[in-house]
Amino acid sequence: MNPFLPYPVRIDSVITETEDRNLKTFTLVFINAEDEKKFVYVAGQFAMLSIAGLGEIPIGIASSPTEKGFLKFTVNKVGKVTTGLHDMKAGEIMGVRGPMGNSYPWDLLEGRNVVIIGGGFAFTTLRSSIVYMIDPQNRPKFGRIDVVYGARTPGMLLYKDELAQWEKRSDINMHITVDDTNDPDWKYNVGFVPTVTRQKAPDAENAYAIICGPPIMIKFTLPVLSELGFPPDRIVSSLEMCMKCGIGFCGRCNIGTQYVCRDGPVFTLAQLAGLPVEY
Amino acid sequence: MHSYTERIREAAKRVLLEKRVDGVIGFRKGTVPFMNEPFLALSPQQADLLVWDGNCAMNLANYLPKRTDRVAVTAKGCDSRSIVIHLLENQIRREQLYVLGIPCQGMTDKRKLADRLNGKGILGVEERGDELRVYGRGFEYSFERGEFLQENCAVCEHKNPVLYDELLGEPVAEQQVDRYEEIRKIESMPPDRKRLFFEDLVRPCIRCYACRNACPACFCPTCFVDEKKPQWVGKTIDPTDTRTFHFLRAFHMAGRCTDCGSCERACPVGIRVRLFTRKLEKEIKELYGYEAGVILDERPPLEAFRPEDPEPFLDG
Amino acid sequence: MPDICIAKENFPELIERLMGRYRVYAPVERGRYYEFAQIGKAAEADLSFSNTLLSPKGLFHPQAERMFEYSLARDDPDAGIVKEAQKEFAPRLILGIRPCDARAFDLDDANFDTETLKDPWWIRRRDATTMIGLACDSPCSTCFCTSMGSGPYDTAGLDVLLADIGEGYAAEVLSEKGKAALEDVCGSSAAGACLQVAEKKGAAEQSIAAAFDPVAISKIGMLDLYNSPMWEEVQFACINCGACTFLCPTCWCFDIQDEVYADRGDRLRLWDSCMFPLFTLHGSGHNPRSIKTQRVRQRFMHKLKYYQDRYNRGPACVGCGRCVQACPVNIDIRQVGLKMASTVSSCSA
Chain A residues with CB inside 8 Å of C84's CB? Predict the structure, then answer.
């Protein structure tokens, strides 16, 4: 099997997620049924989205492996390929290559409390994780689940409908926040993610923290997690890196000895402490 | 030539001790024959590593754009003209620079020597005045340095620096030569033969961009070959893309290239890219009577407009 | 130990016969330098070379390779579907490759041929290729293979090693592929040549100056090397061109690009270089190696430290010396290696 060859997929639907229209969620369906059987993934992994004529981009898988029949990706419009993707419509053909990367450490998370902290559009693989965890088959494996998710404004939150549904559930504690808003109907928190984390996050005892977000959010949230008592080997993050092959051949995405696409993108803080700060 | 070494070290130590500059950009002795390494001396002790000989060919003005510190820099004629272009194009401020001017007696062309020795491995080379001593396993030859000057040095008309804070030697005699004899020969080729000539010339190119990166006048944050939106040039070694790179780069050099020869010297496969840059140099000279960086406040013609500028393309 | 001696006068015939069974690549003179090219006649092969300017890595990892193709025609139901470009991998033989270069491909295998993922084109080219190497009797002053775990008579990665013994070549068969290549060769016993070859090997190895010790580098902590103040000085001269990386047989980094021609397109892979500023540029504009020092450090750390730590088979450098010869500003990996090897390890390493 050629690991550079994408599976052909069809765009099933396109949803604009954010008020600035820069983030869209694409639901993709495999054109060949047997390809879907080969694409066995775990929450936290990513895939290369391929558009013939433009190129490929590494995007976290937003759908959960518990959701059958399709894949979901939420893509930010930043460059040549993502702009081309944003111009595409339901029914058009593109490609998916993967799954890639090492996923969140689900074996270590079993029996633990999980605190998920996400910011902005880094929330995609966290959606995959949440849907996976609250699936009836999986929910019993985990203890308490807390989610802190923040965006600049209400309009910039991803998966708004799902957030509202999860908020109503009793088996998951949602702490949705925005930096600021003057929306009088805003029901949730107002405040930066680090602040809300400090206020709402539970005890670090028997808990893992998964954190994904823009560098500035991570920079200010990590000290909070330390304060709360999370040791570096129980703080998990997913890194972003410029990637081309996504499978550890092209040499581009290394941090020291580790390829972010192959040995990562998920690393614990303890692992990162042993690597050069070059990301 | 070697007296320059002493004078450079003395001047470097002095300006460092006087704190006129934060560092001195020069060369230190290379690890292989015919090579010296561009070096930033940050202390008087490091200044003792500076050397000068016929292998100080790379244009040190290449290390100036966007610097925020104050530096002294050794500059031959061509280098000093590149510095003038940098000043005109706002890549560095005059107050940041302390130019150690070097009246230049020409740089040595290692390829010409390798040709003469029929590929025999050269282990070392020594300069003694006008004599070049070359030795290898089981041989030692003595040559006249003047026979093995870099091609650009052989036709150089600006050996003396045009800009300096200190001149480290007596000015050398300038020459007047026909710089464009070979260019005219190529110009007069019939189109098909010319096309084949250029195809052959550029065929070995591996798109390493050593020529572009060695050039002081190439300092664009994103070079046109690296642009993605839109992508102007393909990145493979497709001959059309490769020729596009070389031709367009030469056009970007028009009126800015001082023929320092760094591009040809840097090229690992020995492409004579100066044939392109000198063609543009000739055009600029003929159309505008301009030579890059010779007059300190004269802007290159493609960056300035005068009502009397020739416009042959409008004359029908 | 050599197995068979082949007289030089019989060599052209051997080459012709090999050309009947393989596509033969050999060193070909191109003016001032040599390159490995497919030969049409035995006489084109010139084994009097020292080494080629460009390494033969292009034979396994072409500078530009069409991986896939696709239609973009409006009415084509297959438009947008990426398909593998048809290629053939006919048997090839590389004649006269130097031991350093052959070892380099073994080192590159660590990247392209892993347990879980394999690069299909690299693998197929490697499988289809037999390498008959030529030992070095006159190493260049820039060679330092012996310090990198290789040597002028190194057999790593080769199927046959030839040693020039004057009137002929003493050939050591090293693999089944090598045996198959020489199966019908007219040769004589090599018993008498053993001592001569051993002496020449010793003399060649002696003639190469020691450079630096990669084992010492492997013992120093990664972060100690990374944070060393040595890089500020090393990086100054570098002009961030791709000369070193493109000529190096153990540099494999590549880019993947789509090129479109009206109603069809190709997905290509092409050589890229960690030296180029845009190599690690994110779509967001963030660049973890935006400063030249970071890029220069990356190259040497990767080749001399990260690769060692990751694969435990020595450095990603065979001491061929091409980068030393080609660097326009004389950045010398031997000097950098020495500095790295003498970096002081902190207690916590």
Answer: 2, 5
What chain A residue is nearest to B231 in terms of C-alpha separation?
Answer: A80
> Are C294 and A247 an interchain contact pair (Cβ–Cβ within 8 Å)?
no
User: Domain boundary residue among C168, C187, C206?
Assistant: C206
Structural tokens at position B206: 């591996």
Q: What's the CA gap between A206 and B25, in Å, rounded?
A: 58
- How far apart are the C-alpha atoms of A204 and A196, rounded to whole Å? 15
pLDDT of A37 above 80: yes
Mean pLDDT score, C303-325: 97
Does C81 contact A52 at a Cβ distance shorter than 8 Å? yes
Which residue stretches of chain B have pLDDT < 70? 1-2, 316
Number of neighbours of residue B115 by Cβ within 10 angstroms:
13
Q: Which helix (H) or strand (E) holds C338?
A: helix C333-341
Q: How many CA atoms lie within 13 A of C231 on its CB side?
A: 17
Of the candidates C193, C286, C251, C282, which has an alpha carbon nearest to the alpha carbon of residue C58? C251
C330 and B37 in contact by Cβ < 8 A?
Answer: yes
* pLDDT of C249 higher than 70: yes
Report yes or no: A84 at the C interface, CB cutoff 8 Å.
Answer: no
User: Could you tell me what percent of chain A has a pLDDT over 90?
Assistant: 92
Examine the pLDDT at C347 and tell me if it is beyond 90.
Answer: no
pLDDT at C348: 47
8 Å CB contact between A212 and A148: no
Same domain, C324 and C239: yes
- Clarify whether residues B119 and B163 are in a common domain: no
pLDDT at C349: 43
Mean pLDDT in residue range C78-89: 94
Residues C33 and C155 in one domain: yes
**Dihedral (Cα; C341, C344, C347, C349), 10-degree rounding:** -30
Is residue B10 classed as helix, strand or coil in its secondary structure? helix
pLDDT digits (tens, 9 = 90+) for C86-145: 999 999 999 999 999 999 999 999 999 999 999 999 999 999 999 999 999 999 999 999
Q: Which chains touch B (3 or more CB pairs under 8 A)?
A: A, C
One domain, residues C196 and C219: no
Contacts of A250 in chain C (CB under 8 A): 253-256, 269, 272
Q: Given C82, C111, C265, which is nearest A6 (Cβ)? A: C82
Domain segments of chain A: what residues?
7-99, 106-238
Q: Do the Cβ atoms of C253 and A251 come within 8 Å?
A: yes
Contacts of C142 in chain B (CB under 8 A): 32
Helices C99-112 and C120-127 cross at an angle (nearest 10°) of 140
Q: Right CATH number for A7-99 from 3.30.70.2570, 3.30.420.10, 3.40.50.150, 2.40.30.10?
A: 2.40.30.10
The verdict on a CB contact (< 8 Å) between B236 and C335 is: no
B201 vs C: CB within 8 A: no
Whole domain around residue B137: which residue ranges?
110-148
Domain, as residue range, for C165: 4-206
Choose the closest CB to B209 out of C140, C242, C324.
C242
Q: Among partner residues B31, B39, B266, which is closest to C328 by beta-carbon distance? A: B266
Look up residue C107 and give its amino acid.
Answer: L
Give the nearest chain C residue to B225 (CA atoms).
C278
